[in-house]
Amino acid sequence: MNKLYVVGIGPGAYEKMTIExxxxxxxxxxxxxYTVYVDLVKEHFSGKEFLTTPMKKEVDRCVMAFxxxxxGKTVSMICxxxxxxxxMSGLMYAIGVKYPEVELEIIPGVTAATGGAAVLGAPLIHxxxxxxxxxxxxxxxxxxxxxxxxxxxxxxIMFQALFDA
Length: 165
Hints:
5 strands, disordered C terminus
């Protein structure tokens, strides 16, 4: 079976990447991702083939990853933070139904929220809520409704991280 990892590379620094994530990338023939994220890992994984797409080409990137895996290559699709928290895993599962010959494995990473909290000295030790402000894959109207619902709730404090261009 063809192998495709979806790898959360953490908050950006190589040293913050999990061992499991680094192992998946070391075991891959091809590493695919958003151009900025590939640039973050390139120097640490020499000898790999690197393929990129710009922002707003997430679907194209996912299809590219499956097509490379169909060629018999071991592929890693990388995303920042955790692949399952505002990452690529949901989209990869959705597109993966067209590629039943490819085994998909999700490799979690350190989220921007937990990584940022650690750097800032503000641990998330009580209840907290994350709402993405990115409208790349979610309509703005839905994001706005979520914000209003949470801001109108009693005792709401929100920690936000923005990283869309």
